[in-house]
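Journal club side-thread
Mid-discussion, someone asked how the predicted structure for our own chain would compare to the paper's figures. Pasting it here so we can look after the session.
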Amino acid sequence: MTPGASTDSAQSGAGDPQQSGGASNTSQTGANGPQDTFSHPEKLPPLNLFSEATGNTGLTLFTSVGTLVQRVSETRSTSYWQTLAAVNGGISISQYRPALLWSFTYNGGTNLSSTSGYYNTSLSQAGNARIAWNFAKRWQLRIKDNYLYSNDPFQPFLTYLGQPTPNNPNPVVYIPNAIVAQNTGNIDVSYRLAAHDTVNFSGGESFQHFIRGYNAQWNSFTYSGGVFYQHDFSARFSGGGGYLFQAIDFGHGTSRAGVNWFQGFATYQFSPRLQVSGWVGPELTHTKDLIPIFCSQYGCLVEVEHRGSWNVAEGGTLTWQVAPGNALGLQVAHQITNGGGLLGIARTYQGALTYSRPLTRAWSLGLGLLYNDSLSESAFRAAQYLKSWAGTAGFGRKVFNDAWSFNAYYAYIRQSSNFFGRPSTGSSNGLGLSLSYAWNHALGR
């Protein structure tokens, strides 16, 4: 069974969520350079041990513990109960200056799973670093890198779709139940032609490596590059277009794909609380697959098959801030993209609906629903598919003070799949609890 969506799907400009228990130090950039997003706790004394070196620097130490009890059902096996637990901690540090912002976060922990009396212990760790630098009057450089090594039992239940951007309209990565190592790096250079015109150049690299799991899983490498132009027609309306290319290699040459995408996009802000965006454009996809015809102890006889196809990709988002802390989000997408280690290049239809609101001063509510329908476009894995629904409902509460937080949630996943002519249907639902603590401090004032 391969449920869930990863929280780690970072590309340039995407709204990357921090790992569990991490600090949120995402920057907002503008014409005047990176803006201060670190809140200085005035009640605590400064730790300005290094004077200028620690000026405008923030430090966060965090830790969390959690447990999840779930019921797993599959078509080929009996249903069973599974208990999962995790303990982790980490550090986040960020510094901002008039023209420079940088941050680094590391999170590591131990996971314990118990199924029918069998126990398994594994390690999960994640790190991310980012830099935003206004190196000239009209130029800005942004660098992001995210690394994940995980068998984290909680990740399949933390569904997230980041804010799409022209060079990453679908910021989602799906991870099967396996130990996986992945890294995503991206560089963006933006040039402001005039007060209302911007050109953005981007390049990226990522890999996904399966250390343990299905024998049929493909490791993959992705390289991308693009250029986009945006014009602000008014304070509420902006739009533009550009070109993006992706080269994806599955299984070290077993299946390869090149995706050329020409895109137009627009964003309109109806009010300070309601914003709508959309994108559409043609995709030209070329694939090369090595199809085994006959195999023996001496090797395999293979046929090389090339394919080419046109596709129209489109998607959109809606963000509505009903009230402070009360938000509704909707996102839909259809395109040819990386389908993960089991599908290769795939045609995907995705949708996500999220809602959050404060119930009282201490309690908050969060709801999420994610739909995915992926069909492989690789000749090596023709007619293979994965369809899934995933939903979460959770409550959060501040405990003792703002540094402590408690979360309780219910998660449900149902999926149907067909890998190598073996259709199956499975589901999982469970109740999770977690307690986290974050210590924030300014190293200098």
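Post-session note: DSSP finds no helices and 18 strands in the chain.
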